[in-house]
């Protein structure tokens, strides 16, 4: 079975193409979405999971000291010695298991020695053990344009589906109050209209009283 050029995995770093059909907060959710597409006989070679806003997370496991470094080195060396001892037992002519214990002890001793020496060079600069991961804040499921509509329909029940239609632009809200350029703001209405002046309009001082009527 041969694949077309567009279906082959690129050998050089290349940005993915396609439409975003769904977005999820964790990688497990995106993985389950692709597994659902595979169960429903969807062509999953058209699907790509893209992590956005990558961050390097370093989780501190424990504090290091000479005893902890020696114990960790001995255990890792003992596992390697156990593996070597099993190989010697399987392929030795006599098949004797007497080499198992010496292999474990020698492996643990060498592991302890190398771990203590390595810790002595880094002591004071890195006195803790940690584990690092690259984590994304969100994961997008991309699909080729010819299969994007079908993928959205299949993932409709899982949540996180992104519509392929552009979002409508809401009209701007009307301005509140009169615009600053309105010439009627701050001025009394014309005389003879019968309307009272607006609140806050300065009134002229009263004039002298007129002559009494006969």
Summed up:
With 214 residues, this protein is of the alpha+beta class.
Find the structural class using helix and strand composition.
alpha+beta
N-to-C order of helices and strands: EHEHHEH
How many β-strand runs?
A: 3
* Helix content estimate: 25-40%
Q: Helical segment tally?
A: 4
Strand order of the largest sheet: 1-3-2
Morphology call: elongated
Give me the Rg, rounded.
39 Å
Average pLDDT level: 77
Strand content: 15-25%
Distance between the termini: 121 Å
Largest sheet: 3 strands, antiparallel
Poorly predicted tracts of residues: 1-6
Transmembrane segments: 69-91, 97-121
Protein name: General stress protein 17M-like domain-containing protein
Pfam families: YflT (PF11181)
Organism: Cellulomonas wangsupingiae
Describe the structure.
It is a single chain. The protein is of the alpha+beta class and 214 residues long. Among the domains are: 16-57 and 136-154, no CATH class; 65-126, no CATH class. Helices cover 34% and strands 18% of the residues. It has a 3-stranded antiparallel beta sheet. The longest helix is centred in the middle third of the chain and has 26 residues, at 66-91. The protein is elongated, with a radius of gyration of 39 Å. Residues 1-6 have low confidence and may be disordered. The chain crosses the membrane at residues 69-91, 97-121. Residues 168-214 have a biased composition (Pro residues). Residues 20-96 form the General stress protein 17M-like domain. It holds the Pfam family YflT.
